[in-house]
Design goal:
Elements (H helix, E strand, L loop, with lengths): L1 E2 L2 H7 L14 E5 L6 H12 L5 E7 L3 H7 L4 E5 L12 H9 L3 E4 L7 H13 L4 E3 L1 H7 L13 E3 L3 H8 L3 H6 L1 H12 L2 E4 L5 E4 L7 E4 L12 H14 L4 H23 L6 H6 L1 H10 L2
Parallel strand pairs: 1-10, 2-3, 2-5, 3-4, 5-6, 6-7, 7-8
Antiparallel strand pairs: 8-9, 9-10
Helix pairs in contact: 1-11, 2-3, 2-10, 4-5, 10-11, 11-13
């Protein structure tokens, strides 16, 4: 297993040329949110926007559009039809597949909730999306009920489970997972052909390859102040943004975890581990990029 370092991450960051435009800096479709969970969509979107994305497209239930649109002026929004309880309706599937395939990358799951409709949305995107995808949070909980769907993917997939979500995916207890985090990430990545970012102290990134020798990296950045609801949404947005800018999926996962952790470390110094918020991590992403790019 290797430890992520500054050089590896620096090489994974898209260095935009002087004549760059929003089209050349990538577009990310974020399918996220449900009634009562607007914050997850916002934090993921802000994480992506602070990580260099050229165009963020946020698809979310129309009931939370007024909230999200006031917090993310830079995003394009697609207010979606929703179920009676405020979740994304399956009726949006054709539109979402169309938008996914005209984007550079897709992020799905942050605050999405689990229902029969959201499960159909998640499964349809996995089966029909031709662009690399980050699957996070409730999309992972949907997948846990139909793990075989991952083998039907047409494009690379990055999953970003915390130990509880990993437990639902692989059937092991959280204690068993945390006792051998490397093996848990490695086994799932190999079995389902996905890049696995197992979050926690020393986030593990596992990538299966054709020689059946899974590559493993451990992330050295981050701190316990990041153990707050919403931090994972920020990470998913960062990874999605890197992916949309053309960074290889495995490198996007490695660099995203490192950048997220550095931003968290800077936030902890400023606010303290007890009082720091996920939004503080977002506010420190630019400082994380500066530290990485200026590191010698």
């Amino acid at each position: 297993m290797k430890i992520t370092d500054y050089t590896l991450v620096k090489n994974a960051i898209y260095m935009r040329p002087d004549d760059a435009n929003k089209g050349s800096c990538g577009s990310l479709l974020s399918i996220s949110g449900s009634y009562g969970m607007a914050g997850a969509s916002i934090l993921a979107g802000k994480g992506a926007l602070r990580s260099g994305i050229g165009l963020l497209k946020t698809a979310l239930p129309k009931s939370i559009y007024p909230i999200a649109s006031q917090c993310m002026l830079e995003s394009v929004f697609y207010p979606l039809d929703e179920t009676e309880d405020g979740k994304i309706s399956k009726n949006n599937i054709p539109f979402l597949i169309e938008q996914a395939n005209t984007s550079k990358a897709v992020l799905i799951g942050c605050g999405m909730s689990v229902s029969e409709d959201t499960k159909k949305v998640v499964y349809s995107l996995i089966e029909n999306c031709t662009k690399p995808m980050v699957i996070d949070a409730d999309a992972l909980n949907c997948v846990s009920e139909n793990k075989g769907i991952l083998k039907k993917a047409k494009a690379p997939i990055i999953i970003t489970p915390h130990p509880g979500e990993m437990s639902r995916l692989n059937g092991l207890s959280i204690k068993e997972i945390n006792s051998n985090r490397e093996q848990a990430a490695k086994a799932f990545a190999e079995q389902y052909g996905v890049i696995c970012v197992l979050k926690g102290k020393g986030t593990i990134i596992a990538k299966p390859d054709s020689s059946n020798e899974t590559e493993l990296f451990i992330n050295p950045t981050g701190n316990s102040g990041m153990a707050t609801g919403g931090s994972g949404d920020v990470l998913a947005g960062i990874i999605g943004a890197l992916l949309a800018q053309g960074t290889e999926p495995y490198k996007s996962a490695i660099a995203g975890a490192f950048i997220h952790g550095i931003a968290g470390d800077i936030a902890a110094e400023k606010y303290g581990k007890i009082s720091m918020l996920p939004s503080n991590i977002v506010d420190c992403i630019h400082l994380a990029f500066n530290e990485i790019l200026n590191h010698k």
